[in-house]
TrEMBL record:
Domain spans labelled Glycoside hydrolase family 31 N-terminal: 15-113
Record keywords, A-Z: Glycosidase, Hydrolase
Keyword Nucleotide-binding among record annotations: no
Domain Glycoside hydrolase family 31 TIM barrel: 165-492
Tree of life domain: Eukaryota
InterPro entries for the chain: Gal_mutarotase_sf_dom, GH, Glyco_hydro_31_AS, Glyco_hydro_31_C, Glyco_hydro_31_N_dom, Glyco_hydro_31_TIM, Glyco_hydro_b
Name this protein carries in UniProt: Glucosidase, alpha; neutral C
Amino acid sequence: MSLNWTFLLQDDTSSLWKETFREFVDFKANGPSSVGVDLRLHGFDHVYGLPEHADRLQLRDTRDGEPYRLYNLDVFAYKLSSRLGLYGSVPLLVSHRPDRTLGLFWLNASETFDDQTPPVKRMRTQPHTDVHWLSESGVIDCLVLLGPGPQQVFSQYAQITGFQALPPLFALGYHQCRWNYDDEADVKAVDAGFDRHDIPYDVIWLDIEHTNGKRYFTWDPVHFPEPAALQRHLDTKNRKLVVISDPHIKVDPDWSLYCEARDGGHFIRDRQGQIFKGVCWPGESSYLDFSRPDTRAWYSSCFSLSKYKGSTPSLFVWNDMNEPSVFYGPEQTMPKDAVHYGGWEHRELHNLYGFYQHMATFEGLITRSGGSQRPFVLSRSFFAGSQRLGAVWTGDNVASWKYLKISIPMLLSLSVSGIVFCGADVGGFVEDPDPELLVRWYQAAALQPFFRGHAHKATKRREPWLFGEQVTAAIRSVIKQRYCLLPFWYTLFHQAHTSGLPPLRSVPLWVEFPKEEDTFTVDDQYMIGGALLACPVTEPGASEVQVFLPGCGEVNPPPATALIQSNVSRLDVILKLVVVDEGHGYSTVTCEILPLCY
């Protein structure tokens, strides 16, 4: 053994333990490693959690297939019904039965796999689920959340990882985004279009093209020459601007921000100690080491009004590509043998990378306002605890009915795992939705926490008034009804902020109806708080939807299901205990006088 170790520790890196994946070589300076644990959940055969996967809410038996993978990746137009990792990871399992809820939190940020297997049906045995965690690196750190009920599990998890940040009210309104709005005149035209068509909204977004050559914290001098004036124009209507800020920095020795980051030691290094260079939107780029406290503090300072020229207090932030995405890298991400602050290899910290950028951005906006203004930051990548920093979304989805349908269990899985401020791109990011799909998607998204329309630059423009008056009227009605419900949503977020209880209590329906076993497999309808039952239409040509009515013995008479007529011009929810008054207004500011209660 000693001879082998001597051999491995020679200076010749070709002698190091290594693995080859296609054209990529992963050098393991510390040798191979893994940690794992096997657990049996006695009496439980319904298990949930482990986002992010484009799959159903209840986790599948992995006995005859792939395990669930937790490894943050940039996956464009991701496959459905897949256990492969997507943009974020939360290693939390929640198991439930009528008399008990239990949580398992596997605190590990390296590449992780999870298997769960219930007993074979033909075997005479008590219900149980066997769980097997396996991570590439790290230590065994497994926390058991004893409940005994779902609300207690959510609270216990929030006490460990943090409670949901209370968003500013405008963040719960409607957001309009596109890659990309062309220039300041285009932004103002879209803004005026919402007014002209009597459609309320709160935030308009700018993607990467607003910058000077993909240099974040800059503005294109031709297309966005007066960004502060643009923000002041929006602010006169109580509207906000959101801009993108990715974690890669363009390699440009003539750019002061790049030089500042380089000279300050803020970049990740490769295994040979040189600044790591990869490729992303700006071309050759280096990646900020957000695991380093000084780097997070420096990045936070970049959002100050004095440093971020052209910014105002009404500018907010979107963190994208922070898995991190590295074009032409292994699985389009950073090599695992890259080195972070303190000598930690990237393999140890991979799933935390986006979380740390989210944290630095969040702190930057708090510092910018002196603590007087609640931040809004959207992040594509996330980890356990991201809920205390802002919102996330489901990434690069596709304009199809299947993606609309899968968005519901994806958001419910996030919600049961503590990430409650979540949404999916309305209409699908990739490809063009037909008018019926677009309206149905607006109807679904209006009943979800984060409500944003977004589209790829290769798609046709899809502002709500571009599809004819009938579609415009339907979308107008949906968005206005969202604004009617804002006091209710805001109250639910305050509850999540103080108690950990998610607004989407469909996580699943058993959160509100924990003893009803018929709810345990439902993932196409959900409760919003304890009062509204949502069952979005996710099939083309549907004029009615079959709705399961839980709690029939309490409020509703039998039968336990109902056939609801569903018109594309109307947003349908079932009210259990609440009456929603008709509302009006063009932004969330007009809703602030309404009572925040239900």
